[in-house]
Amino acid sequence: MPYLGIFRKPKKEDEPPMEEKPEAAPSETVENKDETSKTYLKAMPLKDLADLEAIKAEINNGNILILRITPLANKSLEDVKKAVNDLYEFAESINGDIARLGEERIVLCPPKIRIWREKTPVKNEAVPTAA
């Protein structure tokens, strides 16, 4: 069979045989590790302050959340402020990340995920005035 370059190279006769690795225990297989270490991106509405515990649990499980705050904002702007402050403090305490996405959404990330923020360059030019 000719070598096409897209599959593995045929084994040379003078290469030493590959060492066989012992089989992993069923709980240590790659398949099981992938199932427990997956990160999901979830979108959730923030309807009430009672939803904060479920949101924190999702972040502690390693998931990324996009929260729509409009349902809570329609009820009480004070509750939105409380919720955002609470989530900000929570993100800081676990070394996670939090950012606003437009007017009605917030994104929350677990510790190993960072939100990219574009830094706008500061110009050293004089600011024109009306005077």
How does this structure look, described?
The protein is α+β, with helices and mostly antiparallel strands and 131 residues long. The protein has a domain at 39-109: Translation Initiation Factor IF3. It has 4 helices and 4 strands. A hairpin with a 3-residue loop joins strand 3 and strand 4.
What brief labels describe this structure?
single chain; 131 residues; Translation Initiation Factor IF3; disordered N terminus
CATH class term of the domain at 39-109: Alpha Beta
Question: How many β-strands, per DSSP?
Answer: 4
Mean pLDDT: 79
SS class: alpha+beta
The stretches of 5 or more residues where confidence is low (pLDDT under 50) are 1-11, 24-33
- Rg calculated over all Cα atoms: 25 Å
Please indicate the percent range of residues in DSSP E strands (runs of 2 or more).
15-25%
Number of helices: 4
Q: Under CATH, the topology of the domain at 39-109 is which?
A: Translation Initiation Factor IF3
Fourth CATH level, the homologous superfamily of the domain at 39-109? SepF-like protein
Instruction: Please trace the helix and strand order, writing H or E for each element.
Output: HEHEHHEE
- What gross morphology would you assign? globular
Query: Which strand order does the major sheet show?
Result: 1-2-4-3
State the end-to-end CA separation.
84 Å
Helix coverage percent: 25-40%
What CATH architecture of the domain at 39-109 do you see? 2-Layer Sandwich
Question: What can be said about the biggest beta sheet?
Answer: 4 strands, mixed
